[in-house]
Amino acid sequence: MKVIAIPEYCLGCALCEIYCAAEHDGYQGQVLKAFKKGQPEPRSLLLVNGPVSRLNTCRHCDDAPCLHGCISGAIKRDEEGIIHIDEQRCVLCYTCVMLCPYGHVHPSARSGRIIKCDLCRDSEGLPACVRHCPNGALKLCSGREEV
Amino acid sequence: MKYLIVGNGIAACGAVEGIRSKDKEGGITIIDGEKRGAYTRPLISYYLSDPHLYRDINYRSLDFFREQQVKLIPARALHLDPALKRLTLDDGRQLSYDKLLLATGSTPVQLPIPGAEQAWVKNFYTLQEAEEIQDELEKVQEVVVVGSGLIGMKAAEALSKRGCSIHLLEKESQLLPRQLSPGAARLLQDYLSRQGWDIILGEELTLIHPDHKVELNSHRLIPADLVIIAAGTRPQIELAQEAQVKVNRGIVVDSYFRTSDDNIYAAGDVAETLNIVSGKHEVMALLPHAHQEGYLAGCNMAGCNYPDTGNILMNSLSLLSWKICSAGALEGQGLEFLSWCRKEQLLELMIKDNYLQGYIAINIPEITGPLTNTIRHKISIPASKWEEFIAEGPALKHIPLTYWQELRRIESYGSN
């Protein structure tokens, strides 16, 4: 399972980043609370290069380099196939960062801790980025489907 | 099928997962020579820096071995007889096997320095050594670390966090000679000197005096309550050697991790595997590779034919607040160098004939994933594109478009 980004449909509005950030760190999707009072951090970042933009999100790879490479056992795959980080075990060695082919697993600019897409596994329904994309540029797919 | 694994490190854990992905029934026995369970060796420096926070450095828990139905035997393997397919342990027990994996890892290189036998001269390789240092730490102020490789650096960092004064000795003319260029090493050296580390380059230890002083070849004397010898590691090949399994520096394996004996496999730090950049089989003692190799070897022991596609040298080192990543070949004939530096950030790219061969990235980790994989997958990108990437200020959004296109074609990752 993963979120697929379709660059042709992406407007570059970055609502995906905003709702991603608001869905995590206990903000429960409350955008105002997150951005007015908190320090929200999107897990997936919008990559904008000239006119082309797309959300750089996690593929939750079968043969996941970050998972193989994690030295402390902090990176785990749950029963739904979602690769996520156990922050208690992470020692911030950044091996996963230098292994991720997509440059998606990355350090938070604010805290330095490792953050990545967890497909909003702690909340109900579709991932927040997919739910709030205004132009259908993001979709959740489960098979080998690629664009 | 009876599987026997000698060693209980990362490759062994990978092998258990590999075997069990194919064979749920066969008996798996692990010989745990260190008798400490499967822990993550690089985490012993974290343990030493904060023994309370990092008291659990297990790589896989006992539950894991129970769930995978693995029998753990805390003993050392003494003798391997490939003809009888029998392994003898130091407690006298003899075990037979159908398939055996040598995952014996590596061991520190010992230096023939007079005085090195004293109790306050230690390696920093096992959890036991880290615990011994922790137990004696109250009496330690001055620490001499011999060797500025990854192990020496992490030992020095842990001890500096615990309030010790660090004297770091490197016989070559720069820090981290395997991981950094001279320029990158100077940047790091300036930073560490500002943190109060005493860094001594181009000198070797000649004598360790019983009255807590060490002597260098320049005859300089340094006070030392603790000496840590971190002068590199070598593969533990003795068991293989004695069993007439083919060895060079490490154990020789084919691309299925089979040794010269059909029923004996080897993986992890002890095996020589394909370095994609050099095209040669080398010992690449790195944790991520150990897991992957162990996994593939395990699958193959259970009847699969999964070839190893090779790997590259890579290291990510967190040192105090710095993040140092390097990968691939940092020197060699015909390499073109591109570099970028801003305050405490540095990026160096090594390129040959449109192929990225290596990189060094200091305090700019977020771009390293695509760089590592450009090398690993031999993605052809002209140097001019990398010049543009650097000119715009190295950022993920400026990674050459070709990379993303090729990655989509490779599709070996996102195929779930």
Question: Any chance you could write out the topology, listing elements then pairs?
Answer:
The complex is a heterodimer of chains A (147) and B (416).
Chain A: E1 2-5, H1 15-23, H2 31-37, E2 45-49, E3 52-56, H3 65-69, E4 75-77, E5 83-85, H4 95-99, E6 106-107, E7 114-115, H5 128-132, E8 138-141
Chain B: E1 2-6, H1 10-22, E2 27-31, H2 44-49, H3 62-67, E3 70-73, E4 77-81, E5 86-89, E6 94-96, E7 99-102, E8 106-108, E9 121-123, H4 127-136, E10 142-146, H5 150-161, E11 165-170, H6 182-194, E12 198-201, E13 205-209, E14 213-216, E15 221-223, E16 226-229, E17 233-235, H7 238-242, E18 251-252, E19 264-266, E20 271-274, E21 281-283, H8 287-301, E22 314-319, E23 322-328, E24 336-342, E25 345-352, E26 355-362, H9 368-376, H10 383-391, H11 401-410
Parallel strand pairs in B: 1-2, 1-7, 2-3, 7-19, 9-16, 10-11, 10-16, 11-12, 18-20
Antiparallel strand pairs in B: 4-5, 5-6, 8-17, 13-14, 14-15, 20-21, 22-23, 23-26, 24-25, 25-26
Helix pairs in contact in B: 1-8
Written account of the structure:
- The complex is a heterodimer of chains A (147) and B (416).
- With 147 residues, chain A is of the alpha+beta class.
- Chain A has helices at residues 15-23, 31-37, 65-69, 95-99, 128-132, and strands spanning 2-5, 45-49, 52-56, 75-77, 83-85, 106-107, 114-115, 138-141.
- In chain A, 21% of the residues lie in helices and 19% in strands.
- In chain A, the strands form four sheets. A two-stranded antiparallel ribbon of chain A has the order 1-8. A two-stranded antiparallel sheet of chain A has the order 2-3. In chain A, strands 4-5 form a two-stranded antiparallel sheet.
- In chain A, helix 1 (15-23) packs across helix 2.
- The radius of gyration of chain A is 15 Å and the shape is globular.
- The two termini of chain A are 14 Å apart.
- The model of chain A has no long low-confidence stretch (mean pLDDT 91).
- Chain B folds into three domains: 2-107 and 233-301, FAD/NAD(P)-binding domain, CATH 3.50.50; 121-229, FAD/NAD(P)-binding domain; 321-410, FAD/NAD-linked reductase, C-terminal dimerisation domain (Enolase-like, domain 1), CATH 3.30.390.30.
- Chain B has eleven helices and 26 strands.
- In chain B, the strands form seven sheets. A five-stranded parallel β-sheet of chain B has the order 3-2-1-7-19. In chain B, strands 9-16-10-11-12 form a five-stranded parallel β-sheet, with helices on one face. A five-stranded antiparallel β-sheet of chain B has the order 22-23-26-25-24, with helices on both faces.
- Chain B starts with a strand and ends in a 6-residue tail after the last helix.
- The model of chain B has no long low-confidence stretch (mean pLDDT 95).
- At the A-B interface, strand 2, helix 3, helix 4 and strand 6 of A face helix 8, strand 22, strand 23, helix 9 and helix 11 of B.
